[in-house]
Every structure is written in structure tokens, then in C-alpha cells.
Amino acid sequence: MNIYNTYSKKTEEFVPLVKPEVKLYTCGPTVYGYATIGNFATFLMNDFLKRTLKYNDYTVTHIMNITDIGHLTSDADEGEDKIVKKAREENKTPEEIARYFEKQFMADFKKLNMDPAEAFPRATDHIKEMISLIEKLIESGHAYEKNGNVYFDISTYKEYGNLSGNKESMLKEEVRDEIVSDSNKKNPRDFVLWFKAPKDHLMQWDSPWSKGYPGWHVECSAMAEKYLGDEIDIHTGGEDNIFPHHECEIAQSECAYGKPFARYWMHRRHILVDGEKMSKSKGTVYTISDLEEKRFDPLLYRFFIFGTHYRSKAHFSFENLEKSKRGLQRITELIKKLQSITNDRGTNLEAMALLNKSENQFTEALNDDLNTPKALAVLYDLVRDVNSFIEQDKINKEEAEALLTLFRKFDLVLGVIFPYIEKSEKEIPNEIKNLAQEREEARKQKDFEKADELRREIQEKGFDVKDTKKGPGIFVL
Ligand SMILES: [Zn+2]
Description:
Mean pLDDT: 93
Helix content: 40-55%
Bound molecules: zinc ion
Shape: elongated
Largest sheet: 4 strands, parallel
Distance between the termini: 37 Å
């Protein structure tokens, strides 16, 4: 399996530290609001990765943290804690805010059929671990305390900037603009490990330096070490995490434990909505509930993201989501046809050859730096070819079953086809089922006019009915 490593900027063969185990860490949500479809694009990439690893017989231990402290409104160590700010605005405690949005996040996570992490540790439950990590950094001369704050001294770590390319000598302009002058810092680029809290700050803990709270970056280093050890295989996140967050995680972990922190770094590129960056003022910062309100099952978003490569910008629009839906329906309709095949005529060698070829191509695409759009194209080609065999009556029961097994195998990674079918079937109201039954009666009596009229009625209600060999099948439009 090959993956593109943001650290080396090369596509590399994936070799875990201890085969077949893979230690995977993902920066989780900051729970001060609903996660957006942009956030979920990253988590979905991670899910496709995790499932591809399992598909290749690796065992995966996956940790995703929940940030409920320390993520400030600006990445440059200034501004207010996002959760504290929200709590103040809503007149609630930070804990109430964090738990509420964590619960919403978990509900969306489930709706997108993502494989749950082995643990979702909260930052506020790991203050002790963060303090001991900071102590290690001070002892080893990589961090210093000044007026109750603790800073990481980047001059002690010459690799700082390797991941993002933001080396001191060639600082990108946007980074230079973000640097805030803090007279406590030896170097303006040093970053905060521990903040001294103002007296009335809503979240603060005792520490050797001051009553305060940890910086955002230190939580991931501390929790990754606690749950996965001091060296991990793959670290994932969104491209906006590369700097400063991941750069800082690397500096902290490597200086504290003296080992390479993560061997592979993978980052999902931003998604675009209607061709632009998601924008609050344009009302395009969509959440999973927004999709549901427009009657799109969240699984369709999963399917849409699968159709885009994680290293290119996905072009989200409701029109494209609608296209994904039609694509998925082509697949689910074929599944229903295959399920209704009962004939036991002779073997079609062509069908068996197609089956093997498709399986190989699908696996190859995934193992080539998670090329999910290519894997999806293999699936669509298979659907087209099998449909043509069925039209020629060239698929017997045994072949149909082998094909269904193959689609189930693909769905171990895709995670959409069979959950979507199950959900669609469950959600068909009795009213629609009765109309479909009536239509079937009309057809039997050769009253095709009435049958067509009933079909139109069904379509108006957002469903459709199509004839399979087992009788009428109902689909969600
Ligand atoms: Zn992180």
C-alpha cells in the first residue's frame, strides 16, 4: 500500500512499525459548535484509510481526541478559548457546551457510518498527562516558564518547520502576519504550552507554574503518547492543521520522547462549496443536519466524498450531491436485481473473469494512495457490465451471489451501499407500500393507465417503484 506523506512530500510504501498493527491518530473536533461537512470530509478520509488498512488485513488502533479546552480563536496563541467564548455567549458552563456538541458530533459520526475510534479521549480528562509532558520539556531545556506561562523554545529544535515548510529563514507571509508580540517569548515564534488564566477564567487547573490551562497542541502529543505510545504510524488531519498545530505536535513529542513522532502524515484538502471556500456570510457552512433538512441522507455525503480524492479539493454542491444520489441508485438497483436472480443455467466465464478483474482493480486503486474516485469508477464499470449481462440473461444464481459477495466486500471500505439499502427499505412508509401494492394489482389486471397513475403518485411522494423478478421494488427518489 502506498500513501503520500506530507512530511516527506513523497508517495511512500506504507510499512508499519510492527506488522500487522497500525497505530493511527486523528485530530478530533473542537466541540464548541456543530462539525461542518468540511470537518467531516477529513474524518471520512480517515475512515476510508482505516477501512482500507483493515481491508488489507492490518489491525488498527485508532485514537481521535475531543478538544474541549485550549483551542483559541486565533492560531497565534491569542484570543479567547473557543468553548469558553461560546459558553459565555450562551450563558452556559463550558462543560455543558462541550458535552452538548460532543454528543451531536457522535450522532453525525454514526450517521456517516464511520468506524468508531478505539477511544475518543477528552482533553480535560488528561490535564495531568499534559503537565507531565510540559515538565519533561522544561527539564530537557526545550521549554521555559515566564510569568506563569510556559513556552516551547523553537530554537532548541532545528527540525521545526519541516512539515509545513515554515522554516525561520523562509517564513511564509501569512505566518509572519500571524506572529503576535508577546514580551514573555524569547522568540516571537515560540508557542504556548501552558497559559496562566485570568482570575475569572471559566476553566483552570493547578499546575507547577500557575493556575491555568493547557495550549491546544500539547493535548494531542500527550494523548497520542498515552494511548498509542511514543511512536505512531499514521497521523491524519485537515490541511489547516499542518501549521501550526501539527508542526507543534511534532516538536513537543520528538523533544519529549526522543523518537520520530509519526512516520506518515496525511492531510485532507479543503472542500469547496459552490466553487468557493465555505463562508459564514454566504451561508455555506453546512452541517450534516443541513443536508438532512434538504432530504439528503448523510450516507450520500459519505458517497460523494468517496468519489473525490483526498488530495484534491472536493467540489460540493447540492447538485453534485444529487448526482451522487443517482449514481448510488444505479448501484442499489443492480443489487436488487442480483438478489432476485434464481436461474441455474450454465456458468458464464466472462462474468467470473469480470468479477476477478474488478476486485483487483478496486484493491489496486485503494492501495494507490487511497484513490477512492478510481475505485468508484471500477465499481460503476462493473455495474454497467453486469447490467448488460443481466439484460442478455447471462447471469445465473451462483454468479449473482458471487457478485453480491464482491459488492459486500467493496462496501467494507465504501460503507454506503448496503446500509443505504437497509435504511431506504426501513423508511418506506406503509402508505407507499400500499400504493405499490395497488399498482401491482392494476398491472395484473392489465389496467396500465391506472398503474401509471399510481406510479406517478408514488413518485410525487418522493419514491419510485420498479419491477424486478421478485415483484415490485420500491426506491427512495
Ligand atoms: Zn491534534
